[in-house]
Amino acid sequence: MMLIRIFWVGLAGLSFSIGVLGIFLPLLPTTVFMLMAVYCASKGSPRFEAWIRSRHYVGPLLVNWEQERAIPRRAKFLAVCTIALSALITAWTLGPGWLRWAVVALLALIALWLATRPEPSSPS
């Protein structure tokens, strides 16, 4: 039983770490990894789950997503801008060919999906 809890806490810690990296690296999704971290922490350590939810930079995003599937305007703006910068860098640095445009198209689709998510009904 203790080994299972350690597994869940370890997975939660790994997911949380990747989510934190996603704050700074454009191609890593923060919210997905934070949702996974909260889920895993709830299985292994309710205290760790509460700690994750209490973080000011991720707690409100988690609540908005869980309750309304909504993303605040500022978060969408920053994400779309970062994705656009990534697309420009990719188009500029990746060699000629279909791969460059496939990556740019994928990034454009992700940005479009993000931009069309609703905004929370109450401010975060």
Report the count of strand segments. 0
Biggest sheet descriptor: none
Q: Share of helix among residues? A: over 70%
Number of helices: 6
Shape: globular
Give the DSSP E fraction (strand runs of 2 or more residues): under 5%
Question: Any chance you could write out the topology, listing elements then pairs?
Answer:
Blueprint: H1 2-24, H2 30-44, H3 46-54, H4 59-68, H5 73-93, H6 98-115
Supply the key terms.
single chain, 124 residues, mainly alpha, 77% helix
Briefly summarize what is shown.
The protein is mainly α and 124 residues long. The chain has helices spanning 2-24, 30-44, 46-54, 59-68, 73-93, 98-115.
Give a written overview of the molecule:
The protein is mainly α and 124 residues long. It is 77% helix and 0% strand. It has helices spanning 2-24, 30-44, 46-54, 59-68, 73-93, 98-115. Helix 1 packs antiparallel against helix 2, helix 2 (30-44) packs antiparallel against helix 3 and helix 5 (73-93) runs antiparallel to helix 6 (98-115). The termini are far apart. The mean pLDDT is 89.
